[in-house]
Every structure is written in C-alpha cells, then in structure tokens.
TrEMBL record:
Keywords: Cell outer membrane, Membrane. It is found in: Cell outer membrane. Gene3D superfamilies: OmpA-like domain. Residues 570-691 form the OmpA-like domain. Pfam families: OmpA. It comes from Tenacibaculum platacis. This is OmpA/MotB domain protein.
Amino acid sequence: MLSGALIAIGLTVSAQDLPTNAEPGKCYVRCKTPEVWKNQDVTIEVAPAYKRIVSYPAKYKTVTERVLVDEGGERLVLVPAKYETQNFTVVTKEASKRLEKTLGRPSVENQTVVTKEASKRLTVVPAQYEMRDVTVTVKDAYKRLVSVPAKYETRDEVVVIKEASQRLVVVPAKMKTITEEVTIKEASKRLEVIPAKYEMRDVTVTVKEASKRVEVVPAQYEMRDVTVTVKEASKRLEVVPAVYGTEVVSYQKRQYGNKMRVIPASFSRDNEVIEVKAKSAKWQMSEKAPDCTSSDPNDCRYWCYKEVPAQFEIVDKTVLSADASVVTTPECNEATSSTQCGKATYVKRVMKTPPTTREIDIPAVTKVVKKRVMVTPPSTKTFDIPAVTKVVKKRVMVTPPTTREIEIPAVTQTVKRTVVDVPASKKIIDIPAVTKIVKKTVMVTPPTTREVEVPAVTKVVKKRVMVTPPSTNEIEIPEVTTIVKKTIPAEQGTREIEIPEVRATMKKTVMVNAPTTRVVKIDPKYGTVKKRVLEKDAYSTEKSVEAKFKTVTKEVLVSKGGLTTWKEVECKLVQNTPLPINWNLGSATLTSGAKRIIDARLLPILKDGVAVAIESHTDSRGSKSSNQSLSERRAQAVVNYLISKGINASKLTANGYGENRLTNRCADGVSCTEREHAANRRTTFRVIDQK
C-alpha cells in the first residue's frame, strides 16, 4: 500500500509538473533554478588581549632642610616734616578784555550791466536759378505704310487664265493737333525774414550791498571776597609699635610611599562552533518503482525537496578570565596607625601685628582778600543796513527772428503739337479669278506693305530751373552793456583789547617734606631639621599582549534553488549537436577560434536558462586511459570558459568518453585514413533536464 501511494503521488507530481499547452512536434526541457552560494570570511578571537604588569618599589633619601624659627620683623623710626616760608601771588583783579569797534574803508567798484542782450538777425540768401534747354515733343513719332505690289508670272493653264487675287489699299493715318501746357519754370519757394521783437524792461541793479553795523556792549565787574590759604593743612605722624608671639609649626619629617603587588592575568580554555555552510534544501527524484511498466525513465517517480543540514566547524580558543591588575598598599596609614606617619613640630616667633603709624591732622591757616571779578563779559550788538539799488532800462528780445516761406508758382507755356489720332491701316480688295483655257498669270508674291518710320517733331524751349534753394544767414548782434558805479560799504568789526590782571604778593608757610617713617629691619633666625623624603614612589609598568584571531571561511546561501518551469527548445538541441572545435594535438587548451565558436553557438542557448551537457571524444590512437583523461579535460575546458562568461555552474555538465563511442570502424588495430580518425575527434553539446 505504501509503494502504491508513493507511485500515485509520483504520477500526480509528474502530471502536474508537465508543461501545459504543449504543441505537437515541439521539445521541452525542465529548467531548475540553481542554489547560489557565496563564501564569507568569519574572524574568531582564539586568544584574548590582556595586560602584563611589572611593579617597582618606592625609593627614599634623607635631606637636611633649613626652616625659619624667628620671622624677625620691622621697627618704625619717625622722620618729622620740614616746612619753609614761600612768597605767593594773589590775583586781586582778574584779567579781562575790552571790545573796541573797528570800521573798515568803503570801496567803489565798477559793475557791468547788460542793457541790451545779444541777439541774432537773419539775412535771406536768395535761391539761385539758371536757364536750361528742355526738348519738348510737338509731334509724336509714328509709322507710315508704303504699298509693296504683288509679283506675277504667266503659266500655261487649261482653264484659269488669271487666278483670284487680292489688292491692298492703304488707308492713311489720321492726325490731330492738340494743345499742351509745358512748364518752362518750375514752382519754387522764397524765404521772407520775420525780424525779432524787442521790448524795454526795468532791471534792478544793486549799487550798494546790504551790510551790518556793530555796537559794543561793555563788560560788567564786581568786588568779591576770596579766601587765601597762608599756611597749608598738614599731618603729624605717631608710631604704634609691632606686637609679637610664638606658634608651633608642623612639618613632614619622614615621607612614606606605597607597596605594590601584581596579580597576573588568568585564562581558561573554551571552544566555539562556527557554521561554515548554512542549512539548505534541494530537489531529489526517487528511484523508479519496480512495478512500473512505462518505458519513460521519468515515469513512476516522485520529487522530494529534501533538507541538507548545515555544516559546522569547532574552533578552540583561549578566554581571558581576569586581566592583570595591581594592588597598592600605603606603607603608613594614619587611619590605622598609632604614629603620625613621620610628622614633627618646632616653635617659631611670629609678628602678630606689624608696626604702624597714626596720623594727626594740623589744620590750614587762611586769610580773606578783596578781588575784582568780571560778572558779564563784553559783547557786541549788530544792526542791519539795507542795500541800495538802482533801476536801469534793458532791451530784451521777446520773440527771436524767424523766416516765412512764400510759394512762387510755376510758369507754363501753351504749345501745339500734332499727334496720331487713328493709326494707318490696310484694306484688302478681292480681285476675282479669270478662267480660260489659255495662258494664265499666277501671283508669285502677294502684295504687302512696308512700314516707314516718321520721326517725332521736337522743339527746344528755354526753362528756368532753381539750382540752389533759398536759405538764411544768422548775423550775431552783440549785447550792449553799460558800466555802473557800485559802492561796497566797509565792514564793521570789533577788536579785543586785553586788560591785564592785578596781583598782590603775600607770604605763606608750606610743608616741603611730609612727616614719614623709616623702617628698620629685624633679621629673621633660621634652624635645620632632617627629613626622609620619597624620591620615587612605587610604580608599575603595563605591557599589552594583543589578541590572536583565526579566519574561517563560511558558505552563505544567497538564493534558494528548485524546480521552476519548462522551456521550449529546438528539437535538434536535445540530441548531440557538434561543436566544431579544432583542438591542437594532445592539448585541452581553447584557442581564440574555439572561443569564438563557443560564443556564437552555445552562449545564446544558455542565456535562455536551460542546462547543457558538454561531451568530448577522441579517436582510438593512443592508450585508453590517456584518451579518457584528454576528453575529460577538453570537456571541462569548455565548461570553465562558459563559467568565466557568467554562466551558472549548476547548468553545465562536462563528460569525457575518450575512445568509448567511436562513430565508425576505426577501432584499435584497424587501418583508417586521417579523415576517418578526425570524425571520432569531436566535441558535442545537448540540452538536458535539470534534476
């Protein structure tokens, strides 16, 4: 029952997998999408990075240090002030200024006044004329027709003695006399000057400009009391001595360093499982059922998509449990030790309050003095003096001169001339033929007319023609000026007169040098103490040990493969098709010509997604093993070239058969021609199903 069920499933799958809408006479192959893998490098840390620490103990030395046991200090000695009597000047009347009015000299200058503006006068330049001969046609040219008679000859005729003919009668042209107006003097223009218009206008001329008059306002003074210092205020210094005391000073008599203990790094062994190829699946066809009666090898089978387990690799590695470290312990800890860790004391004399001075103020001695002070400074007051003007008559052009064009009519003359009214023509008069059985006169040339040119009759007439048109000339009329006397008034100003100040000399006591203090230094006193000093504390050095890594190559599935579809192919491609490659003797290397044949024959077929089997054969010459190896290498060379062109390797199969499939009788020990042996040296390809 189980085998029956598997057969039923296989038939169902095969039936469902067959191409739909297949056409008779067409061939189909099953195309499989191949699995695409890529290699990926995975780097694993097999030994971790850690620190290696080396410790060094502390170093000490003993030094003698000089310390201050008595600061010393300062003592102030009083230096009294110095005084002297000096003469000083007191201003009893301040310096001032007095304003004095100054008057300049008036001046008279000549000023040119335009009484008549410049203008222009137009002068007419008349047009120029000349007499020219003008030919006037008084009678038009025409043509006159002159009659040319016909030419005859006598012929022997039985009936007609004179043929019918035509006679031309000239109808002369009719003439008429017409009267025509001829211009003997063309129309022109004459320019007439329109003079400019002027009028007299009043113009105001300033003969004396406006000015100002200055009047001085004197300064005002008053007497004021001024306090004068006859002895300046000063200060007297009093010394306050310094205050001293003692204090206990602590110092570090001995220094302590640190003790260091190194704890080295610790490691442990471990391993890591690396997936070098991911889990995948692939299609597999079952074996043919034993009770299958079909001759088709694909019948009685079913397809299974079986899982391909992942592949792993175990990598040993070292793991860092704890990195190297340093434990630092102080040699003397004040928190746990009963001693003061090398501290000592000594007594030192210290100045608590430095010596100072106290200032006692000495007031100034003053005296009251009368002083004349200017309350209001002198100033000036300005009065305006109006300008003096004069009215002068001035001729002004109101309208500029222009010109006016006057039309001069053309002069014409009446002339009579004869013209053709009706042109000459011709009139044909028929002459009937005379018949008689006698001699006959025959017209050889018919009568015609000849045109005779009758020239036109002309007459020369004098005509006045304007050569240069009339124009105008501008004549400049200069302006007329007159000189007027103009008085410029003198400018008034003020002059400052300095009034010197009045001083009085008095005596006063002045402090030349202020009272000061002189500092007397008290030298400090020093002692010596011994110290144990830390020259260099305990320290450690670290050295980093780098981690070690190992690279493992891992296969990663890029895209999953499987059965996809059926492809229609040419039926001849299902059979072995020759690939006409000329291999060199004993060689499996593709020549450039062989590569061109593969590019032209195989690449277009493989681009459609089908799978191809490459088969290579040799002739019977040589050993079987060498021929088998050579054929396999040749088939693989074709496959390798196709892979380099981007064809998936899963769609290519390389088979070498050596001398096992000869196409003719040329087996071992049989004598054959080179042509017959060449038929066995062949490389073929065929389209196959992908399983």
